[in-house]
Write a structure and sequence with these properties.
heterodimer, A: 358 residues, alpha/beta, Rossmann fold, 3 domains, four-stranded parallel sheet, 17 helices, 10% strand, globular, B: 460 residues, alpha+beta, Uridine Diphospho-n-acetylenolpyruvylglucosamine Reductase, domain 2, Uridine Diphospho-n-acetylenolpyruvylglucosamine Reductase, domain 3, Alpha-Beta Plaits, nine-stranded antiparallel sheet, five-stranded antiparallel sheet, 20 strands, 33% helix
């Protein structure tokens, strides 16, 4: 059985208790109280943390020792049978991502693109950005990173499935995997090592790929000269070292990342998971705060890393007068290309009516 | 019989009558499990007068006559059990009048739901009708005659409840108007404040006359339609969940689905809650009402609303839903039938159990899609099984499963919806004898020669 590499001595020495003190959803300004509550989590005792956690992943980033506080929370939630979301929703997620032998594999070369289990990436990669690699790609439940189960206190599912996913990908024979889904990169560079799962290929975050590719295409870039708000997603907390690429890419394509309140370490969850787990009031409040903050700083675009965040917030972003766009599409615009992902108005009936009215 | 053929040609013209093998083959069957039986003639009238002449001919010659819309009941209701004339109504497809303020439409007996929906979108976008989840070629009249259900059934009842007037050719050839249109130029009521005679024709499957015109109530078409999806894994909670949702009087439609594949459906009951609104505020208010109504299940973790992404929504909001058609071909080979008893909602848990038991026993793929009727007074629960038409053994197993499900539904107090001729007998065997006597008298009175869709609602 895979065991979490968690060192409680590191927590014993920690004075900051950043995992809880910095949490944006639980009130642990009192460090002593935070320390006491965190010790309960370590000891496997009942703790308010296990019930109140919104599963935003942020404490993984806050911990200065890389001691995986969030993974420990998820482990303890599962041990205690605490369900962050209603049981049927957890069941649905577990069932729908179960490998059933239906997957797609292209002509795999040394480098390959991982679509994870998200066919919507197909809309995005039809660009010169990916012209030399798009055919070397794979998609399906067999390659699904399974990180989502962190939201549902189901580390056991991850421990069961992730090694097989790594094996399935390795069997395709590439040396480098460019992860279009940020969460896959987190799975291979954070979750896997935390549980001692060997990853026999080199994971590359698509931000790094985009940055290098844009440098190759530098002469074709027409700077956009716009301000954009960046929506940090939960899994970005598993690879905070990639965040500088947002600035690097923006720098190449002439986009100013507005220095708003809810970005970087202080980024807010897109809140759709929170809607399912904590109810609509908290989710609506967070989404409003987040979008208002983007508007306040004069952003033209709201730039998304995660397709699920896009689905959650796009309608509200448009209603607030901004343009929701995936990072890849933003780069495409700078290259003079059409964007690949169109706003699915038929899936946003209220927005559709509002747009028709204009 | 050749005299009948020539007489039919004289009535409708030679292009619209056939006694050819290919037509008789096609009109002798439907996509369900009932055995085929061919008509002797297929005729397509264009006017009420032509229908009248055909019925008079049939009555005079004592030739059976079966009126047909699109033939989509799946239970063989328009398979001409004793041959004779198959009256295909599709040429009578005119939309005659829309009364905007009184909100009704008058249309001919072969008009399809697709035609009505398109017409309203084009000419009266602020009005809508209750679209059933059958293929778009289903006709409005046939759907009303079988007590069909549509997207407005949760709010306003069976589609037959929405009928606001009829023009009927009686089996003896007289044309008769039913409802307010019998005494007034307006088609606003099928009966009240007079005796409601529409019950002589609705639910009889064409065995008491041919409906040549129909008035149908229309309803406001709000600017926004949206859907929420609630999941629970406990069948026993479903009746109370529906009671709580219907108590709000907020929702357009409520449909409960259960099926084992695709895997995302496994182990859960999917409750789709549809709503309409004219503004964001109204929509958000209705969504909040749904959350408030079901909060108790959210807190107990027994149920929750799952986010519906923009990718998922178009399929949920499609009218008609395409899911039934997709399901129909799961086993490949295009066979699909369901028994759909109308039942008190409290029966949901035992019906689900029976659905799964029969699927297991007969090795069939199953699904159920249950629609709430008229604020929860009842629901249509579908025992649905698919089968491959090229696999006679699978068809036999599907038929057994459906027959036993229907028997079970009756035992538990349900009433079979659009029953096939065998199920009609099962219903009549259990019927109050005086009620049965009344039905028999009505049929005898209206159709003394027994020519209209014989075999249906027939006392043996």
């Amino acid at each position: 059985m895979l065991e979490l590499k968690f060192d409680k001595t590191k927590c014993a020495k920690c004075k900051a208790v950043s995992c809880l003190v910095k949490c944006q959803y639980m009130d642990f300004k009192n460090k002593a109280l935070a320390k006491k509550e965190w010790q309960k989590v370590i000891n496997g005792e009942d703790s308010s943390v296990l019930e109140a956690c919104t599963t935003c992943y942020a404490c993984e980033e806050y911990c200065p020792f890389g001691n995986h506080p969030f993974y420990l929370i998820v482990e303890q939630q599962e041990k205690k049978g605490i369900l962050p979301a209603p049981r049927p929703i957890v069941t649905m997620w577990i069932n729908q991502c179960e490998p059933v032998g239906r997957f797609m594999v292209g002509k795999i070369e040394e480098k390959a693109l991982s679509y994870c289990f998200m066919p919507q990436f197909n809309d995005l990669v039809g660009s010169k950005l990916f012209e030399n690699i798009a055919y070397s790609s794979f998609l399906g439940q067999e390659f699904f990173c399974n990180v989502v189960y962190l939201h549902y206190a189901k580390m056991s599912v991850i421990k069961d499935r992730l090694p097989k996913v790594v094996e399935n990908i390795a069997r395709l024979g590439m040396k480098e995997v460019i992860c279009l889904h940020d969460e896959c990169y987190g799975a291979f560079t954070s979750l896997a090592p935390a549980y001692g799962i060997e990853v026999p290929f080199k994971p590359i975050h698509y931000y790094e790929f985009l940055y290098n590719r844009l440098k190759e295409l530098k002469d074709e870039i027409k700077p956009l000269n716009v301000k954009a708000a960046y929506q940090r997603n939960c899994s970005a907390r598993l690879s905070p070292q990639m965040d500088h690429f947002v600035d690097d890419i923006f720098g190449l394509i002439g986009v100013e990342r507005v220095q708003r309140e809810y970005d970087h370490e202080n980024g807010l969850c897109c809140a759709e998971i929170i809607r399912m787990s904590k109810g609509p009031a908290m989710a609506d409040d967070l989404q409003k705060k987040n979008v208002d903050d983007m508007v306040k700083f004069g952003a033209k675009y709201c730039v998304f890393n995660c397709p699920a965040c896009y689905d959650s917030l796009a309608e509200k972003v448009v209603k607030a007068g901004m343009d929701p766009i995936h990072m890849i599409d933003l780069c495409r615009l700078a290259l003079g290309e059409e964007r690949g992902q169109k706003l699915r108005l038929e899936g946003m009936p209220a927005l559709q009516v509002a747009m028709e009215g204009k | 019989m050749s005299d009948v053929y020539e007489a039919l040609q004289k009535i409708v013209g030679k292009d619209y009558v056939s006694n050819q093998t290919e037509e008789r083959y096609f009109y002798g069957r439907d996509p369900g499990l009932m055995p085929p039986h061919e008509p002797d003639y297929v005729v397509m009238p264009k006017t009420t007068e032509e229908v009248q002449e055909i019925v008079k001919l049939a009555n005079r010659e004592k030739v059976p006559i079966t009126p047909k819309g699109a033939g989509l009941s799946l239970t063989g209701l328009v398979i001409p059990q004793r041959g004779g004339i198959l009256l295909d109504m599709k040429r009578m497809d005119k939309i005659l009048e829309v009364n905007e303020k009184a909100r009704y439409v008058i249309l001919e007996g072969g008009t399809t739901h697709a035609a009505l929906k398109s017409y309203l979108i084009k000419h009266y976008p602020h009005l809508r009708h209750s679209v059933p989840d059958s293929p778009p070629i289903a006709t409005v009249v046939a759907n009303a005659v079988i007590h069909g259900q549509g997207r407005l059934t949760q709010q306003h009842g069976f589609n037959s409840d929405l009928v606001s007037g009829l023009e009927v050719v009686l089996p003896t050839g007289e044309v008769c108007r039913i409802g307010s249109c019998a005494v007034s130029p307006y088609w606003f009521s099928k009966g009240p404040p007079m005796p409601d005679l529409s019950g002589l024709f609705l639910g009889w499957f064409g065995s008491t006359g041919v409906i040549t015109k129909l008035g149908m109530q229309l309803y406001p078409c709000k600017k926004i339609r949206d859907a929420m999806l609630f999941l629970t894994d406990k069948a026993e909670l479903v009746p109370e969940i529906i009671r709580k949702l219907t108590h709000t009087e907020m929702f357009e439609d409520i449909v409960v689905s259960a099926q084992p594949i695709p895997l995302r459906f496994k182990g859960n009951f999917y409750i789709l809650v549809y709503m309409t609104a004219d503004s964001d505020e109204e929509l958000e208010f209705k969504k909040k009402m749904a959350w408030d109504a079901l909060w108790v299940y959210f807190e107990s973790k027994d149920g929750g609303f799952v986010s519906v992404t923009p990718d998922m929504k178009p399929a949920f909001l499609a009218m008609p839903s395409k899911d039934t058609t997709r399901f129909a071909d799961v086993s490949k080979g295009g066979g699909f039938e369901y028994s759909g008893p109308i039942t008190p909602i409290d029966n949901f848990p035992i019906f689900i159990k029976k659905l799964e038991e029969k699927a297991e026993e007969y090795k069939l793929f199953y699904a159920s899609s249950a629609r709430v009727i008229d604020a929860g007074h009842s629901m249509m629960f579908s025992f649905s099984y698919t089968f491959n038409r090229a696999n006679p053994d699978e068809m036999k197993r599907a038929k057994k499963a459906l027959d036993e499900a229907a028997e079970f539904a009756l035992e538990k107090g349900g009433v079979i919806w659009k029953p096939n001729i065998n199920e009609q007998q099962m219903v009549m065997e259990r019927m109050d004898p005086n009620t049965l006597k009344l039905m028999t008298s009505i049929k005898q009175l209206l159709d003394p020669n027994g020519i209209m869709n014989p075999g249906n609602w027939e006392v043996k």
